Amino acid sequence: xxxxxxxxxxxxxxxxxxxxxxxxxxxxxxxxxxxxxxxxxxxxxxxxxxxxxxxxxxxxxxxxxxxxxxxxxxxxxxxxxxxxxxxxxxxxxxxxxxxxxxxxxxxxxxxxxxxxxxxxxxxxxxxxxxxxxxxxxxxxxxxxxxxxxxxxxxxxxxxxxxxxxxxxxxxxxxxxxxxxxxxxxxxxxxxxxxxxxxxxxxxxxxxxxxxxxxxxxxxxxxx
Length: 223
Description:
Layout: H1 14-36, H2 43-50, H3 54-58, H4 64-89, H5 96-109, H6 113-123, H7 127-133, H8 140-152, H9 160-182, H10 186-210
Helix pairs in contact: 1-2, 1-4, 4-5, 4-6, 4-7, 4-8, 5-9, 5-10, 6-7, 9-10
């Protein structure tokens, strides 16, 4: 006769506990940045939101700004996950220019995009944050954007001008998102969007006529 014994739940590894702690701190920091802004978000407020001690934060990050690196990456990951879902849901017969604009708008008007704006504005006057966010290896948003657009629009990705156009347009949409965060102006937004859409249609027509160019835009972007 065999005696059945209850299996004990597997003990969490040190790495899983570490990942869980960092995940809670990152999510708490995102919420605080959205609610209070960068300068209103202290280590104390983050830890209180996460239900942890300040010691827990400093075991993993030497400063508040070191925490901002995984915060920025988590925000970008969330934004692009939603962007990928939108790309799959758009009508298949939607014109290319309209599809591209819809995706760009979705990325910068995502609720969590404001966290990136808070960090970039703070980096202007906070040197250690600027050095962390603006080093060449941290072009995370740009690289994800290029990868998404190359995957969604391979017909145009063979031309370096395609990415120059989209990244310039994305800069404008970042500005629209910034204005929207303090003052909504639907008429102004509509005018800018229509101008961008018209310019994009012309650029796409030129790319279709020219075909690919000698540069590989995915690996030789000058931005």
